Amino acid sequence: MKLYKEVGLVIWDVNPDIISIGPITIRWYGLFFALSFVLGYQIMIHIFRKEKRSEDDLNDLIWYMVLGTVLGARLGHCFFYAPEYYLKNPIEILMVWKGGLASHGAAIGILTSLYLFIRKKKNYTYLWLLDRIVITVALGGFFIRMGNLFNSEIFGRETNLPWAFVFVSVDNIPRHPTQIYEALAYLSIFIILFVIYNKKFNKLKEGFLFGWFLIFVFGFRFLVEFLKENQSLFENNLPLNMGQLLSIPFILAGIWILLRKENDSINSKKIES
């Protein structure tokens, strides 16, 4: 990486590969992806011990999460952004190493995997799990976007701002480093959710953290998409790009969850009085 002080641009020319040994290549994206699960697991250990929950259950939960995240993210990319190509080349859906993961698909995969988990583990409620899982998911979002930065992908539109990045492997145009914008936003959301949880975990209404997570994460995602280049050509003909269209239902779901829980709380107080 070179910093051109006279124009204030960051010339981003980072090799996405950390090291290659024979046919094996370790990439920055893979490292960040693995870190998201390793640190997420440590956070969940803290949560399960804090609430005296079974760590054996947590070990099972992690497998559900890993499979739900990877399968959901991959299928989301294939069918949200390039359905025609992958329907014609279905074997390439399995070629994860070629790149292509979608956060909205990951969200759907996680929601599905947690539902399957509570079908097996009857001593957990869906919203209880979601309130805690989203803390680690927000942190995971930070690592994933850092991986995108090292891959020089999911970048922004042209800009003349002093912190613009020139992605050498793409072109010589100064662009918004939207990967960094999102990474910092998700890291901030993680800190907020984690602090609230640690201070009030035994007083929080179920769905509170999950509802705000949906509003914060997908609300920011909706806004930052205005600064991004579209990922697929067909998005150029849409009033909003695919990332924005997919974010709207999650934002509305977050608002609905918070309003419903608030309404339930008001009704319960009326009954008690």
UniProtKB/TrEMBL annotation:
<comment type="pathway">
    <text>Protein modification; lipoprotein biosynthesis (diacylglyceryl transfer).</text>
</comment>
<dbReference type="GO" id="GO:0008961">
    <property type="term" value="F:phosphatidylglycerol-prolipoprotein diacylglyceryl transferase activity"/>
</dbReference>
<keyword id="KW-0812">Transmembrane</keyword>
<feature type="transmembrane region" description="Helical">
    <location>
        <begin position="61"/>
        <end position="82"/>
    </location>
</feature>
<comment type="similarity">
    <text>Belongs to the Lgt family.</text>
</comment>
<feature type="transmembrane region" description="Helical">
    <location>
        <begin position="125"/>
        <end position="144"/>
    </location>
</feature>
<keyword id="KW-1133">Transmembrane helix</keyword>
<feature type="transmembrane region" description="Helical">
    <location>
        <begin position="180"/>
        <end position="197"/>
    </location>
</feature>
<feature type="binding site">
    <location>
        <position position="145"/>
    </location>
    <ligand>
        <name>a 1,2-diacyl-sn-glycero-3-phospho-(1'-sn-glycerol)</name>
    </ligand>
</feature>
<feature type="transmembrane region" description="Helical">
    <location>
        <begin position="209"/>
        <end position="227"/>
    </location>
</feature>
<feature type="transmembrane region" description="Helical">
    <location>
        <begin position="94"/>
        <end position="118"/>
    </location>
</feature>
<keyword id="KW-0472">Membrane</keyword>
<protein>
    <recommendedName>
        <fullName>Phosphatidylglycerol--prolipoprotein diacylglyceryl transferase</fullName>
        <ecNumber>2.5.1.145</ecNumber>
    </recommendedName>
</protein>
<dbReference type="InterPro" id="IPR001640">
    <property type="entry name" value="Lgt"/>
</dbReference>
<dbReference type="GO" id="GO:0042158">
    <property type="term" value="P:lipoprotein biosynthetic process"/>
</dbReference>
<dbReference type="GO" id="GO:0005886">
    <property type="term" value="C:plasma membrane"/>
</dbReference>
<keyword id="KW-1003">Cell membrane</keyword>
<feature type="transmembrane region" description="Helical">
    <location>
        <begin position="28"/>
        <end position="49"/>
    </location>
</feature>
<comment type="function">
    <text>Catalyzes the transfer of the diacylglyceryl group from phosphatidylglycerol to the sulfhydryl group of the N-terminal cysteine of a prolipoprotein, the first step in the formation of mature lipoproteins.</text>
</comment>
<dbReference type="Pfam" id="PF01790">
    <property type="entry name" value="LGT"/>
</dbReference>
<feature type="transmembrane region" description="Helical">
    <location>
        <begin position="239"/>
        <end position="259"/>
    </location>
</feature>
<keyword id="KW-0808">Transferase</keyword>
